[in-house]
Design a protein that fits this description.
Elements (H helix, E strand, L loop, with lengths): L2 H16 L8 E5 L3 H7 L4 H21 L4 E8 L7 H20 L4 E5 L7 H14 L6 E8 L1 H17 L5 H6 L3 H5 L12 E4 L18 E4 L9 H12 L8
Parallel strand pairs: 1-2, 1-5, 2-4, 3-4, 5-6
Helix pairs in contact: 1-9, 2-3, 3-4, 4-5
Length: 253
């Protein structure tokens, strides 16, 4: 172990010990951004950046599990990403499918698809559904895999599902209008029944949400990290968590 590695380990340990265990986030959501830029920096194919990003996602889940985080949401692919050139999209979907299969194969965590599965190729949608079925009975950390996800699409889908549900019961237009409430919409989101994210992390230096969990993140704390996702280290994660524990959450008050 080199001197720099030793210093890094000691610093990481110091941050870990300083964390207030009573204030850790219960739900952490992450925008895994910067894979393509990482690949370009090395003059490597785009797919190598996505592979490195998938490897980092596996590490990240382990870090969250160590801190007893109950729910983790990984944004892997947006609805906009589905418009990427086929020579990039097809390998990316394969990498995502392998990652999801690996997460399920650990036998430790529950996998929950978050996104518009009807927009995805049949193979990808099948992998997502199979992973959810295989892990449904597990009691470990809940892992939301956001694939084909868009925040505006999610809200539109939730409202549509709410309207269909009550129309099927014979409700009139006036009656349906009365039940379009905050609570009613929340019950039809992709993450229904789950706690909203406490901490949202975005890698790559970008300081925007890009439509990620627009509804659920209304009272979340945000942390933006300069590191591209494949370069995101455990110490970066611990810094994000430390920053979260040091904030006073107001919930709009």
């Amino acid at each position: 172990m080199g001197l720099s590695d030793l210093v890094y380990r000691l610093y990481e340990r110091r941050i870990r010990k300083s964390l207030d265990r009573q204030r850790l986030p219960g739900h952490v959501a992450v925008l895994m951004d910067g894979n393509r830029r990482w690949a370009r920096a090395f003059g490597a194919p785009t797919s190598s950046g996505h592979q490195a990003g998938a490897a980092k996602a596996r590490e990240f889940l382990g870090w969250c599990d160590e801190l007893d985080v109950g729910v983790v949401t990984l944004w892997m692919l947006s609805t906009d990403n589905l418009n990427r050139p086929e020579d990039e999209l097809v390998p990316l979907l394969g990498i995502i499918e392998n990652l999801i299969d690996d997460i399920a194969a650990t036998g430790r965590w529950r996998v929950h698809p978050v996104g518009a599965l009807d927009l995805l190729p049949d193979r990808t949608a099948t992998v997502l559904k199979d992973a959810a079925d295989r892990t449904r009975g597990l009691s470990g950390m809940h892992v939301n895999v956001a694939v084909g996800y868009g925040g505006r699409r999610e809200i539109a889908d939730a409202v549509r599902a709410l309207l269909h549900e009550h129309a099927a019961k014979g409700a009139s237009l006036e009656e349906v209008a009365e039940i379009i409430t905050v609570e009613g919409i929340a019950e039809h989101l992709y993450t229904k029944g789950q706690p909203d994210p406490d901490l949202v992390i975005r890698a790559s230096g970008e300081q925007r949400l890009s439509g990620f969990m627009m509804w659920q993140s209304a009272n979340a704390e945000f942390y933006f990290c300069e590191a591209l996702w494949p370069d995101f280290r455990q110490v970066d994660f611990l810094r994000a968590v430390r920053s979260y524990t040091e904030r006073e959450r107001r919930f709009g008050r």
